[in-house]
Design a protein that fits this description.
The chain is of the alpha/beta class. It is built from 13 helices and 13 strands. It has a 7-stranded mixed beta sheet, with helices on both faces. A 4-stranded mixed beta sheet has the order 1-11-13-10, sandwiched between helices. The chain is globular. It binds pyridoxal-5'-phosphate. Pyridoxal-5'-phosphate binds near residues 84, 109, 185, 216 and 227.
């Protein structure tokens, strides 16, 4: 078992509770005021939820997607225990069907890389723009035994697909018969007007297309462990069977809470992320970091031009009680990069950015 440098730092922080640690590592947007949540009744605990998901949640998810021009019905939806659960279901389902290779727009989260490898897929990483770029798709020689995994807005780079590229991917997919898996866990946070708001709004044919989404980032609620998956109705049937034999159903109280959150909407979170992105983009310019403002997502991915980011992260932790996330959590690892989340509490963000700027100034003399 390997612990990432971030997990090791978090373990040290958890082991020394007396220190006033500042954690600027998770890219989960934080609500300014807790959203109201329905209290679970005993009925929720006294029976299994339907394996596909409770009707109330399927209905509001369908509405959410329709508002984003995605034309689906509830038969195209499956409730999961978050997006990783959805990716796991899809990966096992596709591996059992003869898919042998996963081509990922990278860098990718280590968990995603490990998951695809663990189900026996040969996993290769192409730079996000290459994997997503229409013409260069040909060079990847994708065929029916391949899946193409694209996360847009992308973690960590924030890059997003534009409409032209989305069309090129769907055309290539129809021609070459590969499977497309789209990870949309940051799709509420598209900042660049040139980016496609929802790439799945223009799916010409849902056969061989799967999309995962979740309440973790889009609604700031990773603890709910509720996500959803979209696919052709016959695929949803097959995946629902998999849910049934693997875990029966997702917690019904969590599903009702997710339904309530979805109806409420996430406007305050979107606004906080927008303001945080502005703050962090100005900061990046002031400290001379190598970066363009992120097209989407809840994080800034940058090279701070002081060499190995692990050394910087160690100094921030040891001398300033500040824990940050680095390129080591991704595959391939980018040694000089850090990922700064900007949907966090404003005071935490401002103070942490000041600390990092001080350290950078001192380092550069
Ligand atoms: C790209 C991407 N996909 C999936 C996930 C997992 O989300 P969930 O909490 O819904 O499992 C994350 C979380 O960081 C992520 O960044």
């Amino acid at each position: 078992m390997r612990l990432t440098p971030l997990s090791s730092r978090r373990a040290v922080a958890a082991g020394t509770p007396g220190v006033d640690w500042r954690i600027l590592a998770e890219n989960i947007p934080v609500w300014q005021a807790d959203p109201p949540m329905p209290v679970a009744g005993w009925d929720d605990h006294a029976q299994y939820a339907p394996s596909q998901g409770v009707e109330a949640l399927l209905d509001v998810l369908c509405e959410r997607e329709r508002r984003r021009d995605v034309t689906i019905t509830t038969e195209c939806l499956l409730v999961t225990n978050g997006a990783f659960d959805g990716l796991g279901l899809i990966a096992r389902h596709l591996a059992a069907r003869g898919v042998r290779r996963a081509v990922c727009g990278g860098p990718v989260l280590l968990n995603v890389f490990d998951l695809f490898n663990a189900v026996g897929l040969r996993t290769v990483i192409e730079d996000f723009p290459v994997a997503a770029g229409g013409k260069s798709l040909f060079s990847l020689e994708l065929g029916p035994s391949d899946l193409l995994y694209i996360n847009t807005p992308h973690n960590p780079t924030g890059a997003c697909l534009d409409e032209r590229t989305v069309r090129a991917i769907f055309e290539a997919q129809l021609e070459f018969g590969f499977t497309l898996v789209v990870d949309l866990v940051y799709d509420s946070f598209v900042h660049d007007p040139a980016a496609a708001v929802s790439p799945i709004a223009s799916v010409p044919d849902w056969r061989n297309v799967y999309a995962v989404n979740s309440f973790s980032k889009n609604y700031g609620a990773p603890g709910l462990r509720v996500g959803w998956l979209m696919a052709a109705p016959e695929e949803i049937e097959a995946l629902t069977a998999r849910i049934e034999w693997e875990r029966i159903a997702v917690s019904s109280s969590a599903q009702h809470q997710a339904a309530s959150l979805c109806s409420l909407g996430n406007a305050p979170l979107v606004e906080r992320v927008r303001a945080g992105r502005e703050l962090v983009s100005c900061w990046a310019e002031e400290v001379g970091a190598v970066v363009a403002p992120p097209q989407g997502g809840t994080h800034l991915w940058t090279d701070l031009l002081v060499g190995d980011a692990e050394v910087l992260a160690d100094e921030l932790m040891t001398d300033h009680g500040l824990i940050i996330s680095t390129g080591a959590n991704f595959y391939p690892a980018l040694d000089n990069h850090v990922r700064i989340p900007y949907g966090v509490e404003t005071a935490l963000l401002q103070e942490s950015l000041e600390t990092i700027a001080d350290v950078l100034r001192r380092r550069r003399g």
